[in-house]
Amino acid sequence: MNSYYPGRAARLFVTLSFSLGFAFSSAAHAAPAVSDSTCWAADSVAATPATADTTKALAPAVASDSLVRIHPRGADGRISDYTVAPGVTWHYENTKPFRWLFHIPRDLGQAPGYIFRKENKDTFIGLATSSVALWVADQAIIDWSQDFGKFIGLKAASTQKTLVYIPFHVGSANLPFEFNVPDNLNSTFYFLGDGWTHLTVASSFWVYGGIKKDNRALQTSSQLGEAILSTGLVIQTLKRLTGRQSPYVATKDRGEWHLFPSYSRYQSFVPNYDAFPTGHLATAMATVTVIAENYPEYRFIRPVGYSLMGLLGYSMLNNGVHWASDYPIGIAIGYAFAKIAVRNGRTRVEATPDGSPAAHGTGMAPPPKPRPWYRQGHFAPYNYGPFTGASWSLHW
């Protein structure tokens, strides 16, 4: 029996099994068109009578106005517009595999302006207050959590068992195929925050979107990729700056803080430096937020997601991987990058300037979409005394 992390093959297999089923079932329920001019069209596109007449022919009425209204497929056979609430319609562009990787620098560049806003002052006060309060009580919280786990018979150790082992060698390198699964309930809860879990959820949306030509599912997958990776980069940077001990290796109550450890020192014994902030809950928060923002008609997403995050949070106290005060900042970072990714991944649909119906027959058209940051550079000639040349500038 091995400890700490499940094997890579096992993590991919198990998460793919769960997430493919979730994405296909949830997105499939959103597929039927359920619009009617008496339902949401009057609120969302009531700019002109012509608009209202156009929307009447979309689909028969339904009894509930809580269902998403999917606009007809475009000329390319793709679904791109979704009315998710009265007066709220979002347009999703088609995307390509791994294009989200090019969005990471943009998201990181936008983060300071999005996070450090005047209106976020109360949020920062809340984060600071909660983090300090939890830090004061960290040791007591850890002790209580582990005592409670013992009381209910929940094993603290994060362990795995090997179901399949196939030896494989390349020269002197031993590269076996292992199929491992969590060996106890606490390990299962801890697995909810594993990076493979969230990345496999993202891939399942991509598979569904590609099969059904559903731009919303494709963009959700893309947004998940960029939100998770952006979050991970910031979390890893903070871990390597703060150097906080994990509870299970702590040498004193609440652990030591080894600020700015060297790269070699950090890598020599990672658990001694990587507790703050939590990466598991950060990526979990990013995943839940991206999906909930893009599928608001499924109101169970946040309650279920936050409940699973609660189990994940407890499991990391029980197995001694994190302190409670590691949580607030990590969760906030995941939430912020999820909101940034969603904001950049869709556009609010507006009426056409002259009030006439758009070409796709919904009476609405998306506003112009700005080019991505890496395509916004401009060349310009310059003369400076006897020198002549060209300059290239990038506007953020």
Automatic annotation (TrEMBL):
Q: Which InterPro entries match?
A: PAP2/HPO, PAP2/HPO_sf
Does Iron-sulfur show up as a keyword for this record?
no
SUPFAM superfamilies on file: Acid phosphatase/Vanadium-dependent haloperoxidase
Q: What range(s) does the Phosphatidic acid phosphatase type 2/haloperoxidase domain occupy?
A: 224-345
* Leader sequence segment: 1-30
Top-level taxon in the UniProt lineage: Bacteria
Keyword list (alphabetical) reads: Signal
Report the protein name in the record: Phosphatase PAP2 family protein
Highest classification ranks of the organism: Bacteria, Pseudomonadati, Bacteroidota, Cytophagia, Cytophagales
